[in-house]
Amino acid sequence: MFTSLLTTLFELCRFRLAPQALPGSRGFTYLMVSAYFLVGLLVSSVDQGMRGALITTAVDTLLICLLAAVSLWVAQKPERIPQTLSALTGAGVLLGLIGWPIMYWLHTAAQAQTVAEQAATIAEQTQTGTVLPATLVMALIIWNIAIIGHILRHALEVTFGVAIGIALLYMYMSLRLMGVLFVATN
């Protein structure tokens, strides 16, 4: 069961399956949302205190739920909310588990730099070891946007371009809000 779920989520993240491949039950959706919250807490705790991690993870979880609910409500397809939310959060769990060691690597490498090195040129940053993990984080963000677009394309029955536009808008709003929260909690 667990291996089958991981395979399904991995195939969803590789754009080979649609959200319809996941169970549509509310229990499964609650499980995926809970796992998303826990993995988000793990990732957020790398560079934030527990209070900040709890706040940003709770807001992030709320935002992903709102993305699914509002977009499907506007598209008049509310019956698709459980599967779409399961797909969005399930993919987020998988990406979070992939991203957690990279975030830890980036955070550790950044902490190892002195204040002078933080203002260094790209060539000097390469020597300190922050460029590769930062590049991998950026690749994960781009992959995440593409996955959200893939899921929304199927759920909303829109073109991939429209779905990517919605995913970019969601990501922009999420990052802006997280930036405000991160400043407020520190």
Q: What's this entry about, in short?
A:
This protein is an all-alpha fold. Helix content is 81%, strand content 0%.
Describe the structure.
The chain is mainly α and 186 residues long. It has one domain (2-185). Helices cover 81% and strands 0% of the residues. It has helices at 2-13, 26-44, 50-74, 81-112, 115-118, 122-128, 131-156, 160-185. The longest helix has 32 residues, at 81-112. The model has no long low-confidence stretch (mean pLDDT 90).
Low-confidence stretches: none
Oligomer: single chain
Radius of gyration: 17 Å
In total, the number of domains comes to 1
Distance between the termini: 41 Å
Spell the H/E element sequence: HHHHHHHH
Could you give a short account of the major beta sheet?
none
Helix content: over 70%
Which structural category fits the helices and strands? mainly alpha
User: How many extended strands?
Assistant: 0
Round the mean pLDDT to the nearest integer and report it: 90
Shape: globular
- Strand percentage lies at under 5%
Helix segment tally: 8
